[in-house]
Amino acid sequence: MKTSEDIKKIVDKDLHIEVLRDTLTDLRVENRFIKKVVFILFAMLFIAIIGLFAQGVYHQHKMFKFIGENEFNTEIYMDNDLSDSNTMKVQRK
Question: Total domain count for the chain?
């Protein structure tokens, strides 16, 4: 026959095993959730990097298209008055 101490040890052992199983189940669920969150964050980071690269390419294309379609002419007239040695007149036309 089993004594009360033997029964108590068995119950404590079974209870300890059940607590460990429950803890492992909870950890598995949490690990899956964390993996999903990390995957989603990496996907969002990848999309953000692709977006930044695409914006750079798009705006560079627009800038070169604008420069190619327009002509820029600048004339600078510099007049050095010899009567006053420290003055120079600069005009853009």
Answer: 1
Secondary structure string (H, E, C) spanning 19-80:
HHHHHHHHHHHHHHHHHHHHHHHHHHHHHHHHHHHHHHHHHHHHHHHHHHHCCCCCCEEEEE
Alpha-carbon Rg for the chain, nearest whole angstrom, is 39
Q: Average pLDDT for residues 47-53, to the nearest whole number?
A: 97
Both tokens of residue 91?
Answer: 């005009």
Does this model's pTM top 0.70? My answer is no
Q: How far apart are CA 81 and CA 88, in angstroms?
A: 6
Domain containing 14: what range?
A: 4-92
